[in-house]
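Supplementary Data S3. Sequence and structure tokens for construct A.
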Amino acid sequence: MWRVHLDQPDGARWTSPLSGPERDRAAALASPVERRRFTVAHNALRAVLGRLSGVPPARLVFGTEHNGRPYLVGHPIDFNLSRSEEWALIAVAPPGLRVGVDVERVRHDLDHLAMARHLYQPAEIDHLTRAASPVEGYFRFWCAKEAYVKAVGVGLAGLRDTLVTPEGNATVGSSRSLRWLDVAPGYAGAVVTTAVMIHKPLPDLLRPVSSVDHGVDELLDSIDN
């Protein structure tokens, strides 16, 4: 599990390993800040996956499943990337597991309870109305839901059907591997792993890797929460 600060002063040096389609996606973003953040996030992802797979980052090839979920061609490593403003999270899981991660900037300019009534289940709404910080609670639940649907590959349409229970060992959907992440002040984060075959027992959440390629150590922080 890695946390990436995207506002790097020398972000231009992270452009070379990206593929043509990745560079096109970056170029299509509206602002220079978002283009730089996209570039840093995807280069960091390549650095992590290159280290784990033993393949130079520039030579990694990505494919997409029928639902648009990305995967690493030729390697059984499962991964997921999420970014929000100046922070990104990268999660990796070993063969036999799928992983989803989400990070969100906590925003106070939204009618979070109205949104929750549209997207959340009654038990979740009841919890938010009684929470000490309903806004933070809304975003924690959102991160958990999105991490889960990203892990199982059902898309955002599955958010409403996903139940998050915050008491004790939090559960989400059919998975019991939800972890909340302390990303940075003003941010919420969550990671979910689920077995490829849902009926199989789930092991502990993915183990953090302590080292990455030389030159990105100052960019990537390992998270173990």
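Construct B, processed identically:
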Amino acid sequence: MKNQTLIFRLILFSVLFLSLSAGCNQSDEKIESETAKNTKALDVSDVYEKCGDIIFAALFHLPNTQQFFENREQFIGQPANYFSDLLTQETKENILMQLTQLYKKAEGSDELVTFNRSINQWCEANKTTQNLQHQHSYEEFLAGLLRSERFEYLFSQHSNSPVFQSDEFSAFEKAASLSSAQGQDIISTLITDLSMQTAHQFELDITALKALYQS
């Protein structure tokens, strides 16, 4: 597994280098310019280094990169760590190539800064939600969201169901009544919403999320 990961990262770095080097001539000015571009665009590899294969789940859910996935139906309701297993190596490389091109096209723009932050925040928020589920349980994590005024909105599409309308069921029981796909959709929506925040608001929301499960 470690060898496969190393090979994949080497492929990624090769893809980035070839993509960024294509079409440049050999003049000193061009070489210097291209070096600057490489340094900037290699943020893609930095993001992959931080996120690992979770980056594919992030790209699936973020608005700017949803078009990278041709067959979206198979990913709906799937946990973030399942995405990599559902993609072939060729598809992964194609997605990363598209991401590299997006970075190259938007280089130096505020939009790229915002988008890059969103990917990093998506991965961080995913890690936080996973840790909270491991510390408590999947059902208790959802129940905590349901009890919260801040995150209760995530269950709005289920508010008309008999279980959610009844006062006889606890938040835990209501959360447990959801299918796996429904629960994962709530978690993915939470992570994506958090990732789209400013850096300051993201930190506030992550702190508020963790506080829900403190004894």
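The radius of gyration is 20 Å. Confidence is low (pLDDT under 50) at residues 17-42.
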